[in-house]
Hints:
Structural class: alpha+beta
CATH class: Alpha Beta
Radius of gyration: 22 Å
Number of helices: 4
Distance between the termini: 50 Å
CATH topology: endopeptidase fold (from Nostoc punctiforme)
Protein name: Peptidoglycan-binding protein
Order of helices and strands: HHHHEEEEE
Strand content: 15-25%
Strand order of the largest sheet: 4-3-2-1-5
Keywords: Membrane, Transmembrane, Transmembrane helix
Helix content: 25-40%
Organism: Pedobacter cryoconitis
Transmembrane segments: 6-22
Largest sheet: 5 strands, antiparallel
Amino acid sequence: MATIRLLLGIICFVIISGFGLLDRDLLNKKFSFNALECQKRELLVRIAEKEIGVREMTGNNDGFRVETYLTSVSLKKGQPWCAGFVSWVFAQAGYDKPRSGWTPDLFPLSRLARSALPGNLLGIYFVKLKRIAHVGLTVNQKGDWVNSVEGNTNIQGSREGDGVYRKKRHIKTIYRISDWVKVD
Length: 184
C-alpha cells in the first residue's frame, strides 16, 4: 500500500511539473507585467520623495510649490492641498488619474485595496468631518507600520500642516487604501 502511494505521489509530481513547463511563457508574461507595475510604483515614490522638505511660504497653504500642487487640481491658493499633492505626483508620473483636490474622491470603491503597496494612497478619517480628510502616498509597509510621503501635514501628522513630510503611520490609523497603479 505504501509503495502505491509513493508511486502515485511521483506520478502526480511529474504531471504537475509538466504543466508548469507548458506555462513557462505565460509565467514570463506575468512576471514582466509585474516588473512594469513595480517600476511605475517606484517612480511614484521617487517623485514624491523628491518633494520632501517643500514648505508653505507663510503657513496659509501658499508658496510656489504648494500653489503648483493646487493648480494641478484646479484649486486656488489657500485651499488644503494634500490631495492636490498626490494628484500632482501621479500627473508627473504620466497618469491621467487621480486628479482631485477632494480627498474622498481618491478612494472610490473600484480602487480600494487591502495592502499598502508602494504608490498606493492612504486615507485618514477625521471623525469631526465624518469623512476621509487627509491623504498620503505609500512608500512601503513594514509589519504594522506604513511609511508614506504626505503633503499639507507636519511632524505631528496634522491635516493642516505646513509642508511635505515623510510619515510613519500605524496600519490601524489608516481608514482606506486605494490603488491607482493597478490596471483594471
